[in-house]
């Protein structure tokens, strides 16, 4: 049976996901067969496995770092928020239904066998499991039904390391306070603390580390610097869309819908020299981009209403009329059509007129479409005609149906597709970049497309290097070997 170690954090955005990914990479480099595990993930960025099941992207990233295929057992429960009070609940990769927070907590205990089965199955196939917690393990009002932090540590009998984010401030108080709120059994599970996102001279920090160890009565087993690595960290995805990029040679504006999902689709453009990827949430921020992107969303009708009331729809229509390319993915694609109808109440019910930039109409079905797909794009015209027949490897994940499925629909310079991952292919993102540069009369010799897969592997290695250098890996190996 596999040995295990669990990474928990003092708060969301402490860097748990990235630390787990780094450890997975280090352990894999050292010859171990390692897998990540997170019993319950709440995220709008999801992924479809080869067997057509849905899981959180954080565990996909961690599996990639470990050099293995993403597996639904690594994330048996996924919550996809549909409103401030409710989520779509996905168990073992399939939709269980929509629940309010109260309904979910009432039914949590019934999900424990699914978690146990998934975890035990992994332990029979791997040498080491690196578990990830969620949010804070010190939420005393939620402890009784916890299945993702100390509750999961107990189920898996895992030793725990606690990560704190020093960049936010208050890291000593948050680590010490977290330890204070643990009961005696939980305290015994904690074998160390990690300070994350440190900037500056570590010698100035060292007196505080010694005092923290005396207060918490567990060692600090590493200080990780603020890393400049391009890795999809679930905890830092909000930072990605919060930052205000300055328009560059090529300016791509992604509309930041209130319920935006799967915006990792656009990461390849982040990595391109001379390209700015800006997330726009207000009309005054739009400016005159070279391309406008409508991303996926967990509630297409409500987000289209927001787009309309914010004035952004009118601005997009105006720019599309002037020939600015508009590209919709999944929910954004549905918005570009003539109408959206939700007679079954999948996303709250109702019918709404679409933007009318494409000809299709969407009807929501009770059954979700989930599938991995690869092949060649169909033939299209317009500014991006050169992406016709280019190879892709991606996935579909949507409730609505407009009859197009994974085909790329095009009308003028407006494009839409259900295909997540369409921009990952270097041939496709390269042709889009070339077309945008050509439109502006710019020589493309100083610009480059991105081989996203090779780039990711390079970034995982950089992360592993930082983890090796920053953490006491000899001590961590002893923790893994000894257990609790």
Automatic annotation (TrEMBL):
The active site is at residues 330, 420. InterPro entries: Class_I_gatase-like, CobQ/CobB/MinD/ParA_Nub-bd_dom, CobQ_GATase1, CobQ_N, CobQ_synth, GATase_3, P-loop_NTPase. Residues 5-228 form the CobQ/CobB/MinD/ParA nucleotide binding domain. It comes from the Bacteria. Pathway: Cofactor biosynthesis; adenosylcobalamin biosynthesis. This is Cobyric acid synthase. Catalyzes amidations at positions B, D, E, and G on adenosylcobyrinic A,C-diamide. NH(2) groups are provided by glutamine, and one molecule of ATP is hydrogenolyzed for each amidation. Keywords: Cobalamin biosynthesis, Glutamine amidotransferase. The lineage of its organism: Bacteria, Bacillati, Bacillota, Clostridia, Christensenellales.
């Amino acid at each position: 049976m596999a040995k295990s170690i669990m990474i928990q954090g003092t708060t969301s955005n402490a860097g748990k996901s990235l630390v787990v990914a780094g450890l997975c990479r280090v352990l894999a480099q050292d010859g171990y067969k390692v897998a990540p595990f997170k019993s319950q993930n709440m995220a709008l960025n999801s992924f479809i496995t080869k067997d057509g099941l849905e899981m959180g992207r954080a565990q996909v990233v961690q599996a990639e770092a470990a050099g293995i295929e993403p597996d639904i057992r690594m994330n048996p429960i996924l919550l996809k928020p549909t409103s401030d009070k409710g989520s779509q609940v996905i168990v073992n990769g399939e939709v269980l239904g929509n629940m309010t927070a109260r309904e979910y907590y009432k039914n949590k205990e019934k999900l424990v066998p699914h978690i146990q089965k998934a975890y035990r199955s992994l332990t029979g196939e791997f040498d080491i499991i690196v578990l990830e917690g969620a949010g804070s393990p010190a939420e005393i009002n939620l402890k009784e039904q916890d299945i993702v932090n100390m509750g999961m540590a107990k189920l898996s009998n895992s030793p725990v390391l606690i990560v704190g984010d020093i960049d936010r401030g208050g890291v000593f108080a948050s680590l010490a306070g977290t330890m204070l709120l643990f009961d005696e059994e939980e305290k015994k599970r904690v074998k160390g603390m990690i300070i994350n996102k440190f900037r500056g001279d570590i010698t100035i920090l060292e007196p505080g580390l010694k005092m923290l160890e005396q207060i918490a009565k567990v060692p600090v087993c590493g200080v990780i610097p603020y890393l400049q690595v391009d890795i999809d960290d679930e905890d830092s995805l909000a930072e990605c869309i919060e930052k205000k990029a300055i328009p560059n040679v090529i300016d791509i504006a992604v509309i930041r819908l209130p319920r935006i999902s799967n915006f990792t689709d656009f990461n390849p453009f982040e990595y391109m020299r001379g390209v700015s990827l800006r997330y726009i949430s207000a009309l005054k921020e739009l400016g005159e981009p070279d391309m406008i992107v409508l991303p996926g969303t967990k509630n297409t009708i409500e987000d289209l209403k927001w787009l309309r009331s914010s004035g952004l729809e009118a601005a997009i229509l105006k720019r599309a009329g002037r020939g600015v390319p508009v590209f919709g993915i999944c929910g954004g694609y549905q918005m570009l059509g003539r109408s959206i109808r939700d007679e079954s109440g999948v996303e709250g019910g109702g019918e709404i007129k679409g933007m009318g930039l494409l000809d299709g109409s969407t009807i929501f079905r009770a059954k979700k479409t989930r599938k991995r797909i690869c092949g060649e794009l169909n033939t299209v015209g317009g500014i991006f005609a050169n992406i016709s027949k280019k190879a892709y490897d991606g996935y579909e994940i949507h409730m609505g149906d407009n009859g197009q499925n994974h085909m790329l629909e095009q009308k003028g310079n407006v494009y839409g597709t259900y295909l997540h991952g369409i921009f990952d292919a270097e041939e496709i993102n390269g042709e889009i970049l070339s077309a945008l540069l050509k439109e502006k009369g710019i020589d493309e010799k100083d610009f480059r497309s991105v081989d996203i897969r090779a780039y990711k592997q390079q970034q995982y290695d950089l992360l592993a290097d930082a983890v090796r250098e920053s953490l006491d890996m000899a001590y961590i190996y002893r923790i893994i070997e000894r257990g609790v």
